Amino acid sequence: MDIRMSTGLNRSPMRQACATVGENSSTKQQQQQDEDQQRRLKPSLRRCSSAPPRMSRKRRLLVEDHYRVDADTKSLLPGLPVNDDENDARDLHDFFNLIALVPVVVLNIINWDIDVLVAGNKSLKQAWTGQYFPLFFATTIGYFVADLIWVIQIPHCVKSPAVIVQHHIATLVYLAIPYMYPEDTGWLMGACLIVEINTWLLIARRVFNKQGFGPWVIDLSLFSIRVKLISIFFYVTWVGIRCVLYPCIWRLLWSLWYNDYKGGVIFNSRYAVALGLHSIFCCLNFKWTFDLFMSKMRAWKNGGKTKVEKGL
Known about the structure:
The protein is mainly alpha-helical. It has ten helices and no strands.
């Protein structure tokens, strides 16, 4: 009897130990399953820390870089996007452009005969003097190369680095034509780079209106007047240069190329490459303009807070 009792007493701790081991094993298995499930739910790690983050598949309009856009309807909202992210890299890049674009624009303007342009009875080539063309060309190349390197090295200084890089590369290729034929195509460089006035105003809208105030709200304060003037000139130059001047240049290039074509020169013409590149820029301008227009149309259809009189 004593032996049985002692044996039974000895078996009880053994059973408890086995039960404990079983519980621990079950717990470990459950933890392993939980970890496997969490690992499956987590996104895959990037190959290196310098790799760019995954891009969202949701379509993002380019106008969202410079305008307030409703997240659901994609319609324009009054005012400008509020820059509250304290992005020092972007601010520094904006100030660089505001300063660097000034000599490009000024040197461009002084190469034109303003009286001939105002008279409007002569062609762009006849209105182009090219007196300061070497300095204008060197300054322009320096600006685009410096800005291209800047964006490549610090891509987060702009919201669309890929677009900026592609645009600058295409522009540098385009500039090779007036470099090789300055007497015949110097005017083409000057006419196309007038668009930098609009670029300067585009950046100025973002820099001088970080609060995102609507430019069309009636307010006679000095700050409001400054915002209004910048916005008005921005829209006027956008339509006048991107939507009117650039198609006119395209038509002129077509005429010049067609004259070479009739003379038996097709692809070796200096205007053939210019026509192809200029067609790309015209398509980009119309695409950006279309995005603006459609965003505004959506705002009108939705009948939201945005009214027609508030403008884009």
